[in-house]
Amino acid sequence: MTIPTIAYAPDRLDPRVMVARARQFESAIAARRSVREFSSEDVPDEVLRIAIASAASAPSGANLQPWTFVVVRDRQLKARIRTAAEEEERINYGGRMPQEWLDALAPLQTDWRKEFLEIAPALIVVFKQEWGLRDGHKIHHYYVNESVGIACGLLLAALQLAGVATLTHTPSPMGFLREILERPENEKPYVLIPIGYPSATCRVPDIRRKSLDDVAIWK
Ligand code: IYR
Predict the structure, then answer these.
(1) Each residue of 38-55: pLDDT tens digit?
(2) How far is 109 from 31, CA to CA, in rounded Å?
(3) Which of 34, 103, 109, 110 should be mutated for ligand 1, with most atoms under 8 A from CB?
(4) Which protein residue's CA is at the shortest distance from atom 2 of ligand 1?
(5) DSSP-derived secondary structure letter, 107
(6) Computed over its alpha carbons, how large is the radius of gyration of the chain?
(7) Per residue in 54-93, pLDDT tens?
C-alpha cells in the first residue's frame, strides 16, 4: 500500500528574511537554561497542548511516531514521582554513578534532591514506544531513540519560545514512571521534563556554549 503524494512548495523567503528569522530563533533558543528552581505558578494547558503538538510533528522512523507525552499535574502523582526519583538519585549520587561522572556534575552542583518535581506546576513525561500495535499485532518501530530525541528537542524549543522554563531530568533507572503513570509495556520512559517558570530567586550556573567553530566543520 503506497501513500498518495501531495504537492509541497513552501514559500521561498528573501535571504535577508531567512537570516533575520534564523537569528531570531537562535537568540530565543540560546537563552534557554535548564531550570531546577521553579515557581509553583501555573502554566496554561493550552500552551502545553500546542507545544506537544509541535513535538509530535517531528520526523520519525517510517512515520510511526513512537512517542507518548504524559502531562502530570496531579499533586499526588507528582509527589510519588518525586519520592521514587529521589530514591534512585540518592543511590546514583551515593556511588552508583562512577566517580568521573560525579566529578563532571560537581561544578553544576546538582544532587539527589528533586523538590522541583513537586513544585513545578506540571511534568511532561515522554515515553518512547519500543514497538507498536497494528490490528492487534506487534509492529516494529524504527529509529525510536532518534525520533523521540528530535521530538523532545522540538518540545523544549516550543516551550522556550512560549516563555516556559524546562528541565531535562533523567532519574536513572526510571522504570518507576511506567508503573506510577500506568503506561503499557511497549512504552519506556525517555525523559522527564518539569515545566513552569523560574522561581523569583532562581539562579543557574554561569556556563558557556562552545563556539560555532568548535562545533561546526565546513568542507
Ligand atoms: N540524573 C541526575 C544526574 C545528572 C546527570 C547529568 I549527565 C546531568 O547533566 C545532570 C544531572 C540528576 O538529574 O541529578
Answers:
(1) 999 999 999 999 999 999
(2) 21
(3) 110
(4) 171
(5) G
(6) 19
(7) 999 999 999 999 999 999 999 999 999 999 999 999 999 9
Q: Which residues pair with 34 in a beta bridge?
A: 166
What is the per-residue pLDDT for 1? 83
**Protein residue closest via CA to atom 13 of ligand 1:** 169
| Per-residue pLDDT reduced to its tens digit, 155-169 | 999 999 999 999 999
Cβ(194) – ligand 1 distance below 6 Å: no
The minimum-distance atom of ligand 1 relative to the CA of 111 is 14
Please indicate whether residue 88, judged by its CB atom, sits closer than 6 Å to ligand 1: no
Measured in degrees and rounded to the nearest 5, phi and psi for residue 169 equal -115, 130
Could you tell me if 118 and 82 are in contact, meaning their C-beta atoms sit under 8 angstroms apart?
Answer: yes
For 59, the grid coordinates are 520526523
What are the cell numbers at 47?
Answer: 500552551
Distance CA 133, CA 151 (A): 20
Ligand 1 centroid to 210 CA: how many Å?
Answer: 20
Beta bridge partners of 209: none
Does the C-beta of 37 come closer than 6 Å to ligand 1?
A: no
Kindly state if the Cβ of 169 falls inside 6 Å of ligand 1. Answer: yes
For ligand 1, atom 9, the nearest C-alpha belongs to 105
What predicted TM-score, i.e. pTM, was given to this entire model?
0.97
DSSP H helical ranges for 106-210: 116-119, 144-161, 176-180
Ligand 1 within 6 A of CB of 196: no
